[in-house]
Amino acid sequence: MANKTLLELSREIGIEKRALENKVYYLRRKGTELGTIQDGIRYFSDSEQDQLKSMFIEKQATYQSTYERMNSNDVIQELKDRNALLEKQIENYQIKAHEESAKFVELIEQANFNVATANANFNKALEKNEQLQLDYEELEHQKSKGFFARLFGE
Questions:
Q1: How far, in Å, CA of 30 to CA of 19, rounded?
Q2: What is the Cα–Cα distance from 76 to 105, expressed in whole angstroms?
Q3: What is the SS3 string spanning 73-110?
């Protein structure tokens, strides 16, 4: 193998040039200098090419195995089971929420009934108070009359 540029190596590995640039700059920040620059172009030796290829090939193999695992029937069935479980939990929560809201409606109706009863009792008490006030005033008026006026009903 001969020295290759960043673009040539990225095409050989089958990745975008920018992804390879990012990996080279990342390794440079970590202290690993890869490639030599001649006339503004970065060239990689055979060992550096192998090092970079191994990094991306391992990553691609990991992605491939993950993809294969995700498409296996076991995973699909597990996801279906989880989905069914979540749907059942949602249904149970909806039932509980409906029951709780029915309880709140019942409590509100009871509270409204209690308020209406209290208002009715208050109005009766007001009427009774007014009647007692009138009776008291009549009694006071009777007391203010003299003995003979009360006796003969003037």
A1: 17
A2: 43
A3: HHHHHHHHHHHHHHHHHHHHHHHHHHHHHHHHHHHHHH
Residue 42: beta bridge partners? 37
pTM exceeds 0.70 for this model: no
Distance from the Cα of residue 15 to its chain's centroid: 38
Is residue 24 scored above 90 in pLDDT? no
Q: Are 70 and 53 in contact (CB under 8 A)?
A: no
Residue 4: Cβ-neighbour burial (10 angstroms; 0-12, 13-18, 19+): buried
| Residue (of 47, 34, 33) closest to 6 by Cα position | 34
Tokens representing residue 17 in the block: 């040039």
